[in-house]
Amino acid sequence: KTFRPRKKFEPGTQRFELYKKAQASLKSGLDLKAVVQLPPGESINDWIAVHVVDFFNRINLIYGTMSEYCTEKSCPIMSGGFKYEYRWQDDSKYKKPTKLSAPQYMCMLMDWIEMLINNEDIFPTRIGVPFPKQFQQVCTKILTRLFRVFVHVYIHHFDSIINMGAEAHVNTCYKHFYYFIREFSLVDHRELEPL
């Protein structure tokens, strides 16, 4: 239920070219710290947009592969161990931070991110249409919440990831994500404490 089809970039667009550049760099075995740096002459907002969508796709896939182990019974609270509990809040149904099970939280999160990245007013795809002033703030919120998926997966379900033989993929995805958010200071340092 939480797995979504990948969001794709339209061939021929600048973002598609940036996406191809980012993917080629990742597959070339380059240092991930270098790969996340803004290419010369490129727009920071375009670079962030491409990565937010790509991270959404990858993290959604990671959670989707192990979601059968993350149930209402096994994970009645969305948490990162005993010290960290994540509550859901949005601007519509949940106006106050609300305790949810991990599967409910994940479902709400993936729906919320999908709605944002498909909103042309926030993630414009047409050439010449500017990003809104609050674009990086929105991306910070998305990336902060996606980080919580890593926290939950690593602390509560890493044995399942190992049993599936997916730990190398999850670790590489996490390193890429971590270097990216640190490069552009997109997630508050306090949020990073659980990992």
- Largest β-sheet summary: none
Bin the strand percentage: under 5%
- Name of the CATH first level: Mainly Alpha
E-strand count? 0
Our count of helices gives 6
Large-scale geometry: globular
CATH superfamily membership: MOB kinase activator
Q: How far apart are the first and last residues' alpha carbons, in Å?
A: 27 Å
Fraction of residues in H or I helices = 40-55%
How many domain regions? Answer: 1
| Assembly state of the chains shown | single chain
N to C succession of SSEs = HHHHHH
Mean pLDDT over all positions: 87
- CATH architecture name: Up-down Bundle
Low-confidence stretches: 1-6
Please identify the structural class as seen in this structure.
mainly alpha
Describe the protein.
- This protein is mainly alpha-helical.
- The protein has one domain: Butyryl-CoA Dehydrogenase, subunit A, domain 3 (Up-down Bundle), CATH 1.20.140.
- It has 6 helices and no strands.
- The protein has helices spanning 14-27, 32-35, 44-66, 102-117, 135-164, 167-183.
- Helix 3 (44-66) runs antiparallel to helix 4 (102-117), helix 3 (44-66) packs antiparallel against helix 6 (167-183) and helix 4 (102-117) packs across helix 5 (135-164).
- The longest helix has 30 residues, at 135-164.
- The radius of gyration is 17 Å and the shape is globular.
- Mean pLDDT is 87; it is low at 1-6.
What key attributes describe this structure?
globular, Butyryl-CoA Dehydrogenase, subunit A, domain 3, 0% strand, mainly alpha, 195 residues, disordered N terminus
Topology:
Elements: H1 14-27, H2 32-35, H3 44-66, H4 102-117, H5 135-164, H6 167-183
Helix pairs in contact: 1-3, 3-4, 3-5, 3-6, 4-5, 5-6
